[in-house]
Predict the structure.
Amino acid sequence: MTEPQTAPSREKAGGRAVLLVLLGLVVLVGAGWVAAYAFAGDKVPRGTTVAGVAIGGKTPDDAVATLRDGLADRAAEPFTLTADGRTFELDPATAGFEVDHEESVAEAGGGRSWDPRRLWAYYTDGDDLDAVVDVDEDALADAIAPVEEEVGRPARDGRVAFEGSRVVTREPRTGEAVDTDALRDALAAAYLSDEPAVELPLVEVEPEVDEAALRAAVEEFANPAMSGPVTLVFGDSPVRLLPRQFGPLLSMTAEDGALVPQVDEAALEDLVGDAVGEDGAPVDATVRLVNGKPKVVPAKPGVSYDPQDVSTTFLDLVTRKEGDRELGVEAQVAEPEFTTADAKKLRIKEQVSTFTTYYPHADYRNVNLGRAAELIDGTVLKPGETFSLNDTVGERTAENGFTEGFVINDGILVEDLGGGVSQMATTLFNAMFFAGLEDVEHKPHSFYIDRYPVGREATVAWGALDLRFKNDTDHGVLIDAKVAPSGPGGQGSVTVSMWSTKVWDIETTTSDRYAYTPPKTRTLTTDDCYPNTGYSGFQVDVVRYFKRPGQDEVVKQEKFHTTYTPSDTVVCK
């Protein structure tokens, strides 16, 4: 006998039926999904457009080609930029704009995918999408730069400058520049449109150094700096610097919105170096002609120091108040032996004599006299000192700047280095003569040369003859020596002047020539023979009279006796 079927058995059978139905549905859906995938393939969803170009239903390659052709004209259309009524054109390619055709197609749905959303999009109406556009930021900045120069205005920082001892300021000014972020977005939106026109977006640009920073720089540094001199003290030697001297060395540069003081260290070192000796060696004071008048040139201490210490000390000093603008600088100091005070005591204040001689044109005379004047000029004789031409000028060699010329040797003219320097000796002798200085050593030429004053002239020869005179006054003597070179057909001149405090008025007399001696005739066969027409020798006396300035009484007198030998006639064979 069969048992009746229970309720659980019936439920179990029903569950199997439902499961079978569900499985059947899954199979049907899967088959449809596979069919949809196979039919859609990698095509762009139907009805899709990118920037107005229809690419729906096309394979990615076909879509890219269609998109490139469809956008070519619009992609090349220049932008029109406007600002303040002015118009500029901008080439998109130059500005870094470019359509990414492949990425545009990919974003539109081109390409195979099992994603049901993509399959759904393919079989429904596609979207109208924007193209994917790449922008090269650097290229855009370069392309916009010329336009920005035309329409923009750079912000101007406040500035402080120093002109001499004056403080000169420039007020800050707000600028105007293109807002590059906003411009990029605007250009991207206008790109590929029918009328790619963009109004340039401009924004205000604030200066880095504003009004407040400028006022602070003037009040805290610039005005105090120019308020008075500062003194740097090296040992016992103060170096006083005036605003007109150090003003051009100062500047103020912008740093983090403020104006920071700077000093040109090299120029400051030069300025300080003008007041101290070079290479740490002291320099004695002296007297020099400046604009035709004697002027004391101050002594300079020899100083060795760190330029950085000077700059730091200087920048500290210039902001201090009056009465507190002197500070010592760490340094090694050597004081000069002859101080500025010593130079002032020389009382070199006026011209006490001057004398000029002339010479016919000869290049060697220009060279030798010019070099001798260069070495003598500026010599200062202290009271009691003796001047030596040979010691001052040195040996007449090519290395010392001299050339060959005619000299007198054994009564005739021969060539030798330094020819013509005796003209300087004669001119110096006469300047010394009329300054009233003491004649120590002088030797007239062996025979008389008519361009020199008779009985008042001198010759020199290295190692044999010298011109020496002593400053026997209580004042210093400055020697000024100048040469005006000769030219073809024209004379040259030598002028020597003495500067001191006048002690004597000098007068002189010259006797008639007497005791004449006739010349001889020499016949020479040497290569260095130079013919000469001789003339007689003679004797002459010159007297120098010393009077006090402005008085008639002769205090003393001095006689100079000269014997000239004949100038022999020379015949060359």
